[in-house]
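chain and backbone:
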Amino acid sequence: MSFANWYNRTLNRIWGFVEDRTAMRRWALRPQPEFSFKPSYWTGAFVANAFFFQVLTGALLLLYYEPSTSTSATYLACGQATGTLSPAPAAWCSTYYIIHSVPMGSLLLSTHLYGAYAMIFLMFVHFFRGYYLGVYKAPREFSWMVGTLLMLLTLGMGFTGYLLPYTQLSYNATNVGLVLALRLPTFGPLLGPFLLADGTSQGLLSRMFDAHVLLIPLALGALLYAHIALFESHGIAPPASSDPLQRRRFTDKESKSQVPFMPHILFYIGKWALLYVGVLFGIAALWPWQLPTYVGNLAVTPGVTEPDWYFLWLFKLVDFVGVTPVIAIGATTAILLFILFVPFLDLSKRTHPRDRPFFVWLGTSLLGFFVLMTVWGGETPGVQIFPMTVVETIAPIFLVNALVFGLFHWRYVRSYRRRLAARAPAFVGAYGPTRVRAGAAPNVGAAEATGP
């Protein structure tokens, strides 16, 4: 017997004893098929790991952070550290103290910041993977909608946390973001009193702090529980297929033959979680975050207002001549509504990307648009762009994507019809004369339909 087999059998015996004594089978996560032991199937788990890491590092930072704009003489030393004689705000000073006085404080703060970037990036990877593979189709429509709300709240976490160090750059970017948020139809006026409080800087900082450390994390936790519960109900999505009759669920017999979540899948996810933390600490140690100057430091020339990378595309959109904040927020709302309700817009029963050319083209075009706008916003923040330049820059993304997808889909349809014609005698002999609609897949099995 090999060591791997002995190890797995011993582990199963130990865990079987634990499950028997704790009745864990009734509440532990369901088994999953063996083919899912690939990183691409667990992108959602990676996002959850990143979220838990953010909660841990954020809780440690709360031990030292002070959410106050007070500029009493107590904080004069912080101002002097930047070459000025004026006292710095307490929020900035507590951040400065974490970096320079708390043991490993700079590493802790840098990993929290870079962890936020990594969580948002992994969230986008998880979203686009699910979109391209059609995992939002029945019976997982509500799971997709809950995931969309989780994505929106994650961006809200990034927005509210950006102000907390209370630097001049983050203060200016937050004010611009608030102007855009308050232009939301119907919800904007309702959000105003909630976000701005009494209209003072302290009120704004307090509201951002409360939302970042309490309100949004609670909502994220509740939606994450709902997302996992729906995942438990339906299981992992089968591979994408061209077969419209492919099952969307696994049977009880299949579930019993699958790999148990505890402890095998848990250890598998834990392995990637440890790798994630190790890489994050390595990046933070090599490139620690540098704290910009504080709000109100008149000795420093103000720079160009620029948000974090995940909001650069929206800030650049406002730079387009003729695009008002109302139009920018309206376009963003339309995109969010499309993402939220795409399970009810994509009526095809097939999940393979080659059978959904329009929605795949639209998703790829939007991805290219976001990447272009992000780079554009980082290279030329605050520079106005005229309509002709906008058309010349953005139109090729949609046109080239349409040409490429149209060509590949045309070739796929031709090869698919040739395969149907070659197999027509077999179908006629087995089932009698049949008439197959062009572009429709007969019930030949998932293995055949997913073939090249």
In short: The CA atoms of residues 321 and 388 lie 10 Å apart. The chain has 16 helices and no strands. The chain has one domain: 31-449. The longest helix spans residues 387-431.
